[in-house]
Automatic annotation (TrEMBL):
This is DUF732 domain-containing protein. It comes from the Bacteria. The chain crosses the membrane at residues 12-31. It comes from Nocardioides vastitatis. The keyword Membrane applies.
Length: 164
C-alpha cells in the first residue's frame, strides 16, 4: 500500500470517527427522551447539590488506550440508552459515565480538549437528569466555554483512539 493511500485511509478513518462522535453528542444533547413515565433511579450521590464527582482521583493519569477503552464502553451504554431510554439503561449509562470519570484524563489530552470532554460528559449526565460538578474534571469547566473546546476533544479522540 502506498504512503498516499495509507494517509488517505487514516484521514478518512479519523473523519469517520469525528462524524460518529458528533452524531452521538447531537443525540445526547437534542434527542432526549420526551414522555418517559419512569424517571431514572436516584441515589444519595445523585442528589448532591454540587453534581456528580469521581469516586477517586487517579494518582497516575491513564494511558490514552485506557481512556479510549472507557470512553468506548460509555458510548456503547449511551447508544443503548438512546434506543431504550428506560431506568435500566439509564443506570447502566450512569455506571459507565462514572467509570469514565474515575479513569481520568490522559496527560496527553490538551487542556482545551478537557473542556470539550467536560461539555460532552455533562451532556451525558444531563440526559439522565444529573449534573456534572464543575470540579469533577479539574480545570475543565472553565475551558468548556472556550470556543473550539468540543472540536478539540473530537480531534483528541480522532488522533488518540483507533477507529471504533
Amino acid at each position: 500500500m502506498s504512503s498516499a493511500r495509507r494517509i488517505a485511509a487514516g484521514t478518512s478513518a479519523r473523519v469517520g470517527l469525528a462524524v460518529l462522535l458528533g452524531g452521538v453528542l447531537a443525540v445526547v444533547l437534542f434527542l432526549r427522551p420526551g414522555d418517559d413515565p419512569a424517571p431514572p433511579p436516584t441515589s444519595p450521590r445523585s442528589a448532591a447539590p454540587s453534581g456528580v464527582m469521581p469516586s477517586a482521583t487517579p494518582s497516575i493519569p491513564p494511558s490514552p488506550k485506557e481512556f479510549c477503552d472507557a470512553y468506548r464502553t460509555m458510548a456503547g451504554a449511551q447508544s443503548q440508552y438512546v434506543v431504550t431510554p428506560d431506568a435500566r439503561a439509564a443506570e447502566l449509562l450512569r455506571e459507565r459515565a462514572d467509570q469514565l470519570l474515575a479513569v481520568g484524563t490522559p496527560a496527553s489530552m490538551p487542556l482545551t480538549a478537557r473542556g470539550g470532554f467536560f461539555v460532552e460528559l455533562s451532556g451525558v449526565y444531563a440526559s439522565i437528569g444529573l449534573a456534572l460538578a464543575p470540579e469533577a474534571i479539574p480545570g475543565a469547566a472553565e475551558l468548556a466555554e472556550v470556543q473550539g473546546a468540543s472540536a478539540a476533544f473530537g480531534s483528541f479522540l480522532a488522533g488518540s483512539c483507533p477507529p471504533f
